């Protein structure tokens, strides 16, 4: 008899949530506050008009179970906005609301895939795509996003991994963790490939969570707008990032058919019945308020200034090179040079094979930065483990104030020069990698 079912050993996680205890431990060891560049949420608050609506709804006792598909007033707004921005012709019946976008990601694998079916997802990418594949006994097929391609991908790369068993393809632009966006040309070629090569029942899950956080005149493009794609694409987004409302737990998706939307509604019924009605009404107001666009533009302009600062700063550090992404609030610097300088590759090679499987040179740098230099970032493996070997990157979130960004960059610079203490750190902190 064993306590846990086998599948529990196969599910992954999201390290952005798991790093918390390490931050506490690092602060305890050093008596210095950690600069947090690990956080995947905007450091802004929701506008007054959203707060007011939520409070009014609670005062009016709109606190009961509600339509598991989502309240109609919100689904109407989502459908209308999706139609306006992506040229869809959706109806509110094709829209489902979830408590955050995350549940829809796992549900998609449960709904569309049988054991043995193949799931394609970007890597580095949002870790929940990969996490569910093994849990559900599906075959993970990471689509490696390369720095040389501005962390986008071209149709040929996708074509190489599509097979008769492909059932579901995740696409995420602007991308977490790289900030990469795709070009219209690339997206058109990808769409043409899918239409020509995949069975009509193969689904594309287009995770457009960061749709509004784009810079340098780039505008968000959805694959659902491409010819032949509306009927194959689940277009997903939510309030967590654009409206700085991660705690509101409001995500939504538009499905190709009402039949599919109803299956996802039934998943909601099975897992959580419904999403909180007062927050759904708050989300409706957030999406439709006349000042919403202005508020988003302010936030995006702040993010752009920070991006410009941090990209420039990182590129002055010996051992780090950083591309200038056009979206999100993340940077994905290449730290190969720093790994060489600090002796990380040698330290990694000297580890036991069993430990090596659980870590990577970038993970070792992540821990060195945290415990020795008190700056929290995430490693490449936090965004997909399979086939991640040889890719030496970190994710930095610039959802932090200017002082923290400067202090964080200073500490990273000092860490990259701290060649003397890396090996001692590994010797004293081996438990972190086991
Ligand atoms: N998709 C991407 C690409 C994300 O980065 C996130 C959150 O970090 C999510 C989905 C999940 O968002 P939510 O907090 O609404 O569940």
Automatic annotation (TrEMBL):
Keyword Transmembrane helix attached: no
Pfam name, any one: Aminotran_1_2
InterPro entries the record matches: Aminotransferase_I/II_large, AspAT/PAT-like, PyrdxlP-dep_Trfase, PyrdxlP-dep_Trfase_major, PyrdxlP-dep_Trfase_small
Tree of life domain: Bacteria
GO molecular function, one term: transaminase activity
SUPFAM superfamilies noted in UniProt: PLP-dependent transferases
Keyword Transferase applies: yes
Cofactor(s) of this protein: pyridoxal 5'-phosphate
Keywords in alphabetical order: Aminotransferase, Pyridoxal phosphate, Transferase
All residue ranges annotated as the Aminotransferase class I/classII large domain in the record: 34-412
Family to which this protein belongs: Belongs to the class-I pyridoxal-phosphate-dependent aminotransferase family.
Name this protein carries in UniProt: Aminotransferase class I/II-fold pyridoxal phosphate-dependent enzyme
Species of origin: Simkania negevensis
